[in-house]
Every structure is written in structure tokens, then in C-alpha cells.
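Q: For a teaching session next week I want to show students how multiple molecules come together into a single three-dimensional assembly. I've collected the sequence lines for a complex. Could you give me the predicted C-alpha cells for the whole thing so I can convert them for display?
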Amino acid sequence: MGRKKSLKLAEVDYLPNVFSYSLGNIEERLLKYLAKDRPFVLELGCGRGDYSIKLAERNPEKNFVGVDIRGARIWNGSKKAEELRLKNVAFVISRAEFLTEIFKKIKFEEIWIPFPDPFPKKRSTNRRLIAPGFLERYSKITLPGAKIHLKTDDEGLYNYALEVLTEKNVEIINNYHNLYANDNLNFEESIKTKYEEQHLKEGKTIKLISFKLR
Ligand SMILES: C[S@@+](CC[C@H](N)C(=O)[O-])C[C@H]1O[C@@H](n2cnc3c(N)ncnc32)[C@H](O)[C@@H]1O
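A: Of course. Below is the structure for the complete assembly, covering every listed component.
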């Protein structure tokens, strides 16, 4: 591991807006840090938290929580949020597999899943953040009518998501196979994460599916 990364990992658990699964009581600690009475929005596989930060700047009346397993990436998001003095963003270092263990009281009104790892091998299907097991978890930690958005550059993951969502009979609100071929996108749809910037540079098309579970 590089020196920079190990310094970030040594510091990340002590940052005021970062809550690590390994230290327990995440939800209680989060509810002390964020204003309880605001709507909550979740970003999964948040990396550096690009969605949470841009949405938090735009929507000071809402709370944003970014979840990722990689502490060094979250370190970057935490520092950026601090630099921008954003008090409505927090980060959780955890696997998304533990969402229902962490969030018992908080119910999210929206979930963003930007550029999750596609896990192309068949044996890893269940690890895809849009697999049925994850949709089950999302239904337990969201409000009725919550919106979920999946952004990807990966054709295989996009097709898989459509299969799963059709099978689950969810309400698809928007389905863009080539997002930027549209010129009437809203602010949220057009936020570009670090991975998205890279994919765009490589000439890839970006896909977005927005849906409601119920
Ligand atoms: C391709 S990166 C995208 C990062 C960021 N969303 C972006 O667009 O720049 C995928 C991220 O998902 C995280 N991730 C993968 N599996 C996860 C899981 N089960 N729970 C939480 N995070 C996960 C990885 O650590 C990584 O940061």
C-alpha cells in the first residue's frame, strides 16, 4: 500500500463526518451529527462522494449519506465536504450488504448508485448493487415511493438491471441508454463522478435507470 493511502486510512476513522461500521453504533452517531428532521438521501459505492457533495451543496435542507467499503476514497469525500463546510453530508465505511443492520430508524427518500462495480462473472452476480438481494435491502431502508437511480457505463450491468427490475415489476421512471443524447436532463442526472469523467473521456456512453420499488 502506498504511503498516502496508509496515511488516509490511519486518519479516516477520526474524521468528524465519517462513521465506520467496525466502530459500531453508526446510526446513533449519524443522528447526532446530522439534523434528524431532514429528509435523507443515500449514495452507495460513493467512492469520493461526488454525488453526495454536489447534491448537498444544492439541497441544504436534506441530509446525504455516502457509503463505501474503501476508507481511503471516503477520506477524499470527507475532506472535500469539510472544505465546503457542508454539515449535511456524512460518510459511512461499510459494505452495502450491512445496510439493514445499520439503518433501523433512518428511512431514505432517494438512493443514488453511481457506477457500481459491474461484477461481470456469473458467480459474482449477487454482488451487483442492483441484484435482487440488494433491492430487498433497499425496500427495508426507504420510504414508500422512494426513488432509486443506477448510473453505469457497463452494457452488461445495464441489461442485467433491466432484467431484474422487469422481473420485480418495479415502476421505471426514466431509462436512458445514452444519457447525454438528451438535452433536457436535470441537475441531478448530469452530475459527473470521478469514474464517469473517466468513462466519458474514453468515449463510453452513460446509462441511467431511475425507478421506484413500490
Ligand atoms: C467503480 S467505483 C465508483 C465510485 C464512484 N461511485 C464514482 O462513480 O466515482 C465502485 C465503488 O463501489 C464500492 N463498492 C463495491 N462494492 C461495494 C459494496 N458491497 N458495498 C459498498 N461499496 C462497494 C467500491 O469500493 C468503489 O469505490
